[in-house]
Write a structure and sequence with these properties.
The protein is α+β, with helices and mostly antiparallel strands. It has helices at 11-22, 35-41, 59-68, 72-76, 86-97, 110-118; strands at residues 31-33, 46-48, 128-132, 135-139.
């Protein structure tokens, strides 16, 4: 019996396809040389500044790639993520970016919730529902 490997045999092509999908939507993040860390390892250490990405973490890249790899029909339907952290925040930002303003966050990062509440006028008239710790806030 032949063993089936669910992972593609051409990861390189998949990585290039993912990069092409997300490139127009992400911020270019730079490498920053770290003299301190370089001195500790006797080599050159660079830090990838993914904290400069749209939602403050690299999770935006993965969430965006997954979302853009869905069919157009699936993109319009509900998208569920089990994360209320950086990954969940990224999905909420992506849904907002494409004009789907129904945001459901349970136990989200305090900073993201604070940003949403501060800018709530942006959601008025867009049938937005925000769920925070079981409380529903409607902005119609």
């Amino acid at each position: 019996m032949k063993h089936h490997n669910p992972i593609s045999t051409n990861i390189y092509k998949e990585v290039l396809a993912a990069e092409k999908r997300i490139r127009p939507h992400i911020r270019k993040t730079y490498l920053e040389y770290s003299p301190y860390l370089s001195s500790k390892v006797d080599g050159r250490v660079y830090l990838k500044l993914e904290c400069m990405q749209h939602t403050g973490s690299f999770k935006y890249r993965g969430a965006l790639n997954k979302f853009l790899s869905l069919s157009p029909e699936d993109r319009q339907g509900p998208v569920i993520t089990a994360s209320s952290g950086n990954h969940g925040t990224a999905f909420a930002a992506i849904r907002h970016m494409i004009g789907q303003h129904q945001i459901l966050i349970e136990g989200a990062a305090a900073l993201w919730v604070a940003c949403l509440l501060k800018d709530k006028d942006r959601f008025k008239g867009k049938n937005t529902v925000l769920i925070i710790s079981g409380k529903k806030l409607h902005w119609n």
